[in-house]
Amino acid sequence: MNVLKVGMVQQSCSDDIAANIEKLKGNIRGCAAMGAQLVVLQELHNSVYFCKCEDASLCDLAEPIPGPSTETFGALARELGVVLVLSLFERRAAGIYHNTAVVIEKDGTIAGKYRKMHIPDDPCYYEKFYFTPGDLGFRPIHTSVGELGVMVCWDQWYPEAARLMALNGAQILVYPTAIGGVATDSPAEQALQCDAWRLVQRGHAVANGLPVVTVNRTGHEKDPSGNTPGIDFWGYSFAAGPQGEILSVFDDDEEGGKVVDIDLDRTEYVRRGWPFFRDRRIDAYGGILNRYGK
Q1: Is residue 282, in this structure, part of any structural domain at all?
Q2: What is the helix, strand, coil percentage profile of the chain, to 5?
Q3: Which of 23, 52, 113, 116 is catalytic?
Q4: Looking at 43, 90, 105, 127, which residue is catalytic?
Q5: Domain of 24?
Q6: What is the domain count for the chain?
Q7: Does the predicted model carry a pTM greater than 0.85?
Q8: Which entry of 31, 153, 221, 258 is annotated as an active-site residue?
Q9: Is 31 marked active-site?
């Protein structure tokens, strides 16, 4: 078996960025102590999730890549000998910012990056105000632990994105995430949304015969504008196998690190039994490039 030990770090964040980073570093060290070879962090992990309102001054949180965070976490990756998946607010140029996942190799260098392709715009999730859509496509990032199909949060609702990562050779789908419920929705509606969020990603695992790792944040974060009660992040970070089976999961309010064994060779076995890739009718899918069929 080709077993990859994957660490997942789920935590709450405060307005104190330095404290958040120290907390992250402690949890990464904890995962490394449990044998993790790859550690995945949540979306925009250095700060609170700032997209709850539209405030141009918050663009000051953005940083270049390479930059301070890749240096800080690169040094830690090199010290611990682990591959890290970061999620950063990238300043590409004046007025051009991206929501960017960066993969740090175990020697501390940047293995590659992915810029979030699908950008939401919903109450408390005003990402279109901050982020330019990604332009790097759906290409796995080559690392010493395998081909990582890294995407970010809202991307996880799109089967096309997961499929393209799989077709391009990803061995595992990885989603740094920041998602939760807004109190303007009823508890019943929030429960449905949370179940759908987990279900759609397990569906990507099944449809592509690939393991999926999703790392979410937890805790309540207020809306600085006061227009909403803020977000209660769901937590429930999880890893699923290539048949959608849950391998490890956090509680909703749990903080810290977990390490899960993922057998990368199982994809071969599963795809032989469920040969979806063999039976794809690529000659009949041209309509997928249209906005709508009518």
Answers
A1: no
A2: 30, 30, 40
A3: 116
A4: 43
A5: 3-275
A6: 1
A7: yes
A8: 153
A9: no
